[in-house]
């Protein structure tokens, strides 16, 4: 049997077992840890499963984590029922963020890089997903992600263009690479190109606009940061798809 099939089967088993096992361990700390911290710990487990398996394993781990979070850490305990709106929101966000980072980890696995487990990266994804769920206007998410991208990629500036594709600037691709014309730019050796780079935003298959990134000369954002940037743009597109652009 091919080794990758063994690995994927083990990942599927881990997707079912690992969130439950970690949730049982965390029961000891239930009185002292806020539910948001417990949710983030479970997200790390989802990332680990996805990084060593595939998207299916990551999605199953995210679902498993959300189910056991509901069962063990929301009142009434040991029942599949949630009575507090804040716990419902946390459980939904755990599932949404878990699915998002599992996609990110699976993408990273294909590129043979370390999975995204940095707490700062996870917090950025979590905060943006939470805002995308609650924002009444997509512009709120756009402004938030603009600020996130500026600090994440150490940019001089960042702006959002609605529904326009003028010119042919370098483009940050979904796999974290940068394409300029028909050539791939070696970001890890040369840094980002010294001109604006576009990061396109889609929601439900519809193009809504693009973030225009103004790099700081000499900075080389790691691949993990660029993958997180793509995920933040995806969440912006989801906000447009949910709330609408008007």
From TrEMBL:
The chain crosses the membrane at residues 33-51, 56-74, 86-106. Keywords: ATP-binding, Kinase, Membrane, Nucleotide-binding, Phosphoprotein, Transferase, Transmembrane, Transmembrane helix, Two-component regulatory system. It comes from the Bacteria. One of its GO terms (biological process) is phosphorelay signal transduction system. The keyword Transmembrane applies. Residues 13-112 form the Sensor protein KdpD transmembrane domain. Signal peptide: none annotated. GO terms for cellular component: membrane. Its main location: membrane. GO terms for molecular function: ATP binding; kinase activity. It is a multi-pass membrane protein. It is found in: Membrane. Gene3D superfamilies: Backbone structure of the membrane domain of e. Coli histidine kinase receptor kdpd. This is Sensor protein KdpD transmembrane domain-containing protein. It comes from Streptosporangium album.
């Amino acid at each position: 049997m091919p080794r990758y099939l063994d690995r994927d089967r083990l990942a599927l088993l881990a997707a079912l077992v690992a969130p439950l096992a970690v949730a049982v361990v965390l029961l000891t700390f239930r009185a002292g840890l806020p539910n948001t911290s417990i949710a983030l710990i479970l997200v790390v487990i989802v990332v680990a499963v996805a990084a060593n398996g595939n998207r299916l394993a990551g999605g199953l781990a995210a679902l498993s984590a959300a189910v056991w979070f509901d069962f063990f850490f929301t009142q009434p305990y040991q029942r599949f029922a949630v009575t507090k709106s804040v716990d419902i929101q946390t459980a939904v966000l755990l599932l949404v963020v878990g699915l998002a980072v599992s996609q990110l980890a699976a993408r990273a696995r294909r590129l043979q890089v370390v999975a995204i487990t940095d707490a700062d990266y996870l917090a950025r994804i979590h905060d943006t997903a939470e805002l995308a769920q609650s924002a009444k206007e997509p512009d709120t998410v756009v402004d938030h992600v603009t600020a996130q991208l500026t600090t994440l990629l150490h940019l001089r500036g960042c702006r959002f263009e609605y529904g326009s594709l003028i010119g042919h600037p370098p483009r940050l691709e979904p796999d974290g690479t940068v394409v300029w014309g028909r050539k791939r730019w070696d970001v890890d050796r040369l840094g980002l190109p010294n001109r604006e780079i576009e990061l396109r935003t889609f929601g439900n298959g519809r193009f809504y606009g693009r973030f225009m990134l103004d790099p700081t000369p000499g900075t080389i954002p790691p691949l993990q940061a660029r993958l997180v940037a793509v995920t933040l743009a995806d969440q912006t597109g989801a906000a447009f798809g949910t709330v609408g652009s008007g």
